[in-house]
Amino acid sequence: MKAGIIGGTGKMGRLFVPVFERAGYEVCVSGSSTTVTNATIARTCDLVIVSVPIHDTVRIINEIAPHLREDQLLCDFTSLKSDPVRAMLRSKAEVIGLHPMFGPTVSSISGQTIVMCPARTADARLDQLKSIFLKEGAICTITTPEEHDRMMAIVQGLTHFVTICLADTIRRLGVDIQETEKFMSPVYQIELSLMGRLLSQDPAMYADILEQNPFVPEVLAACQSAAGELSDIVKRGDSGAFSAFFSRDTRHLGAYCERGQKLTDTLIECMVKK
């Protein structure tokens, strides 16, 4: 069996090369600096994975589609699923959309979530691919491309938007980050670390996640509405309204409030010990 990763010279592609090698595949990769071409991978590999930036994914899929056969499996590693899966279905190959829910800096995929969107494939083919990830210790979530994108509007779109807004608020206020460290609380340190983690990466990736997911505008509208309502309550100094606002969210999160408290306590303990 032969697996080919288009964009495999990138960080995410390199992370998965040994995963498929341990599963018994001969792995080849293509990239801007390789002699192996995308077309060669499409013609010769049993499993073809497209691992390129979001804004390039559909274009690359369209380029390789004519080279694919019915006995091949075509996948992608994109953070959005509806458009890439729709493009992959225009080929003759079996299709499973993939989204590793982690960055390429992890030491392994053990304990990490991989979302799988089977679109045109036999159950045996899906189980075979799933077993590769499970054997590595990953957690697999099966869903549809549309449901994936709806969830990503929250899991990625909302969280990234809020994190970027936090960073830009600090910039607008002219606050010196190093000065704030003298007053560092554990929670602020966690928030600051998340800002630093995001801003140390490629802005184009986050632009694609926010701009190309059709479900993001609705989520951001809800976020802006919530911020506006809470801001008005704070300006009025209405403690009763604040308590009601706060309690609604507490009830909605339910048992996760206690779970989140315990998880962050553990994280803070680890930070303090360092």
Summarize the structure.
The protein contains twelve helices and seven strands. It has helices at residues 11-22, 38-44, 54-64, 82-88, 123-135, 145-172, 177-180, 186-199, 203-211, 216-236, 239-253, 256-273, and strands at 2-6, 26-30, 47-50, 73-76, 94-100, 113-120, 139-142. Strands 2-1-3-4-5-6-7 form a seven-stranded mixed sheet, sandwiched between helices.
Dominant shape: elongated
Residue-averaged pLDDT, rounded? 96
**How many helix segments?**
12
C-alpha termini separation: 45 Å
Oligomeric assembly: single chain
Strand order, largest beta sheet: 2-1-3-4-5-6-7
Return Rg in Å. 22 Å
Give me the strand/helix succession: EHEHEHEHEEHEHHHHHHH
Helix content: 55-70%
**Regions with pLDDT < 50 over 5+ consecutive residues?**
none
Beta-strand percentage? 5-15%
Largest sheet, in brief, is: 7 strands, mixed
Structural class: alpha/beta
Q: How many β-strands, per DSSP?
A: 7
Characterization of this structure:
This protein is α/β, with parallel strands linked by helices. Helices cover 58% and strands 14% of the residues. It has twelve helices and seven strands. The chain has helices spanning 11-22, 38-44, 54-64, 82-88, 123-135, 145-172, 177-180, 186-199, 203-211, 216-236, 239-253, 256-273; strands spanning 2-6, 26-30, 47-50, 73-76, 94-100, 113-120, 139-142. The chain has a seven-stranded mixed beta sheet with strand order 2-1-3-4-5-6-7, sandwiched between helices. The longest helix has 28 residues, at 145-172. It is elongated.
